[in-house]
Design goal:
Layout: H1 48-53, E1 60-65, H2 71-76, H3 87-90, H4 97-110, E2 111-121, H5 123-128, E3 139-148, E4 162-170, E5 187-189, H6 203-213, E6 219-222, H7 229-236, E7 240-243
Parallel strand pairs: 1-2, 1-6, 3-5, 6-7
Antiparallel strand pairs: 2-4, 3-4
The protein binds S-adenosylmethionine.
S-adenosylmethionine (SAM) is lined by residues 47-48, 66, 68, 92-93, 95, 197, 199-201, 223-227, 229, 244-247.
């Protein structure tokens, strides 16, 4: 039987300004993972969906999901992609919409009530919408952060310098008491200096967000971890990490 989160405060409120704080229950490893095959606070080489299916229901405070989708590459239709440029990127496994929806449904299941999903998207998904990914979940969009990478990329018209982090929250939706740092700006500039993965995300931003939505010892997950930037962030602030990638670098 699934291990559902036990809510410590009794009263429910859907008001985002509610003063009610529901502390994340403290889970032991054995109550989070259904198997001891998956290592906590370490790298796991496996499929992200399989990892998610091995996590109990309602035990994780936050999830970072950085899907490997074609998005901007299909839109821009670069003829020489994979030949003379973007070789590293085009060798990574690409995800279909159907796969992304399966991941999102599992993430929704494992999050605690009022837990957060941080979803990295490109500008085309931002403009054309991702709502169909969340149709069968208790997740809704609560905020957006623009990451200014501090370096210029490609583009036929403007040249890309930013990526977007969509912030979703599982029901009940509330900010007060659940999101504890109100000084994070919605445009974040951070240059990656020690790049080991083509899609590596900024550790400073991810650390600030984890700290804002969780307490020491809480579980944070990343089912497509790449360079394991989220693991590094968790180590800095004493959160437990569960994550994997198809390939370990
Ligand atoms: C956009 S990158 C993630 C980068 C990461 N956020 C970082 O900071 O380094 C996506 C990663 O998903 C991995 N991936 C693709 N399909 C996967 C799957 N089914 N399960 C686990 N990882 C997968 C790819 O190997 C790639 O490393």
């Amino acid at each position: 039987m699934e291990n559902a989160a036990v809510l410590i405060n009794g009263n429910e409120s859907n008001n985002v300004f509610s003063k009610l704080r529901k502390p994340t229950p403290k889970f032991q490893y054995a109550n989070v993972l259904k198997t001891d095959f998956i290592k906590v606070n370490d790298k796991n080489e496996m499929d992200g969906l399989a990892l998610l299916k091995n996590i109990y229901q309602g035990v994780v405070s936050g999830c970072f999901f950085d899907p490997q989708y074609r998005g901007i590459m299909d839109k821009m239709n670069y003829g020489n992609e994979g030949k003379t440029r973007q070789v590293e990127r085009s060798e990574l496994n690409q995800m279909s919409d159907e796969t992304i929806i399966s991941f999102v449904n599992e993430i929704d299941r494992v999050l605690v009530p009022s837990g957060h999903l941080f979803l990295w998207i490109d500008k085309f998904h931002l403009c054309e919408g991702t709502n169909h990914w969340f149709n069968y979940t208790k997740l809704s969009v609560v905020d957006l952060i623009t990451w200014d990478k501090g370096k210029i990329g490609m583009g036929y018209r403007t040249r890309r310098k930013s990526e977007y982090l969509l912030i979703l929250q599982k029901e009940p939706k509330r900010a007060k008491g659940v999101w504890t740092n109100h000084s994070i700006p919605d445009t974040w500039t951070e240059k990656i200096t020690d790049k080991i993965h083509t899609h590596q995300k900024p550790i400073g931003l991810q650390t600030a967000l984890i700290e804002a939505i969780s307490a020491k010892g809480d579980y944070i997950i990343d089912p497509c971890a790449g360079s394991y930037s989220v693991l590094d962030a968790c180590k800095l602030i004493e959160r437990n990490f569960i994550g994997c990638d198809l390939k370990t670098i």
